[in-house]
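Section 5: illustrative case.
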């Protein structure tokens, strides 16, 4: 089932300008401040005084969508190497110091970004900013450490993808849906043969190309003083020079492929079928309202299919509907199912098509599910306001993909304005089964 997105914690649209240093966005209570240093480093600060803690996240605008063969997965590999020491800190010392001071740290790489974070007591704010600034510029590169991390990443790929039949299905769905010269074709972790072939110079060049202040956003959320944060960031990041070549780098869009099918015979216990339709994201949509409508369609269709195909007709044992509203490029709207024991795939496919046709032709039948979904979303957002990690994630992610953090405050309002007729129109426009890409998992049995 499509999980409720953990997003906003305010429901009224608020002004959020990309203005000069120290501009207070939420002027009523001075909760959010945004500024940009002279070297291009963006800073977003969200005040939350409920506990004496903070989370600091440094986001880089680079991910798997920027990679081409033979360097797929190199953003993820560099993420690993960022913990392998600088001129000031030995291998592994970064995380040991954070832990010694009662904090937690980690990192993550996605298709459109790479981010690093520390969550600590407020008294350790300077330590976190100082150490993160150090590894933006002073990372040391060692063949020995690269070889170690290469083995780690290869094992990670084996466990998460190669030995995971469902993950292989979705990897193949991207391979057939996007051309190999465009974004979103390659997996975030990379292809095995590329991982095995990285040279140290490849990592160093990637680091020097993308890890620059004008390609980064620092987000700090918690019990902080905004001016103190800005002063510390200036102190530790301010002397770094911008990479003027960043603005000249070409941004490869996703390149769609249609009517592609693939069958995978793998050791698995259950079959799985996935359909994918090419759709715009909020970033790429000409009509921005349609992107939110696709988001709502995913929720409503997921709930409806689960109710009818799993609980009522009992022809499926699992249903999934997915859409990524905030992707940087055109993306996929996916439908997946596991047929119930003894049920042929075509029976489920016909039932899915029938329900989509009903949504298109009888939007009035959607109103009840639409109202329930809106209430669920709003309740989920209220609950999620307790998490400074969620707040910082969406502030950083939205800024990094180029939408602007103000989109965080528009979400619930945009979703609440969607009508059943809107869902009917957007379903007819994009859920065209004559243009769908399909991957089917055929189980070969498990020992």
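Designed sequence:
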């Amino acid at each position: 089932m499509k999980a409720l997105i953990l997003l906003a914690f305010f429901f009224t649209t608020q002004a959020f300008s990309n203005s000069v240093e120290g501009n207070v966005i939420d002027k009523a209570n001075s909760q959010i401040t945004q500024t940009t240093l002279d070297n291009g480093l963006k800073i977003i600060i969200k005040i939350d005084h409920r506990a004496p803690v903070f989370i600091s996240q440094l986001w880089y605008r680079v991910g798997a969508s920027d990679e081409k063969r033979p360097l797929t997965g190199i953003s993820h590999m560099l993420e690993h190497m960022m913990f392998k020491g600088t001129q000031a800190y030995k291998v592994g010392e970064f995380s040991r110091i954070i832990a010694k001071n009662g904090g937690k740290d980690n990192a993550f790489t996605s298709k459109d970004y790479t981010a690093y974070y520390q969550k600590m007591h407020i008294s350790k704010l300077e330590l976190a900013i100082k150490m993160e600034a150090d590894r933006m510029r002073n990372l040391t590169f060692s063949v020995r450490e690269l070889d170690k991390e290469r083995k780690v990443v290869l094992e990670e790929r084996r466990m998460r993808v190669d030995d995971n039949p469902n993950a292989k299905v979705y990897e193949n769905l991207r391979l057939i849906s996007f051309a190999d010269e465009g974004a979103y074709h390659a997996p975030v972790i990379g292809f095995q043969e590329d991982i095995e072939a990285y040279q140290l110079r490849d990592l160093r060049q990637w680091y020097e190309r993308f890890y620059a202040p004008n390609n980064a956003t620092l987000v700090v959320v918690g019990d902080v003083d905004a001016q103190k944060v800005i002063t510390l960031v200036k102190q530790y990041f301010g002397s770094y020079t911008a990479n003027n070549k960043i603005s000249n780098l070409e941004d490869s869009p996703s390149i769609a492929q249609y009517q592609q099918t693939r069958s995978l015979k793998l050791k698995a216990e259950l079959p799985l079928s996935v359909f994918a339709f090419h759709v715009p994201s909020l970033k790429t949509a000409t009509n921005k309202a349609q992107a939110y409508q696709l988001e709502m369609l995913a929720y409503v269709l997921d709930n409806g299919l689960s109710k009818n195909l799993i609980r009522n007709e009992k022809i499926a044992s699992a249903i999934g509907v997915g859409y990524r509203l905030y992707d940087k490029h055109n993306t996929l709207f996916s439908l997946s199912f596991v047929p119930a024991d003894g049920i042929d795939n075509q029976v489920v496919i016909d039932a899915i098509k029938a329900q989509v046709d009903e949504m298109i032709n009888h939007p009035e039948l959607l109103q009840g599910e639409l109202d329930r979904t809106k209430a669920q979303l709003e309740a989920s957002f209220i609950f999620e306001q307790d998490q400074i990690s969620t707040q910082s994630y969406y502030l950083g992610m939205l800024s990094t993909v180029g939408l602007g953090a103000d989109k965080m405050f528009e979400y619930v309002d945009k979703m609440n304005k969607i009508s059943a007729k809107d869902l009917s129109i957007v379903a007819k426009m994009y859920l065209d089964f004559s243009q769908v890409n399909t991957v089917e998992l055929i189980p070969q049995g498990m020992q």
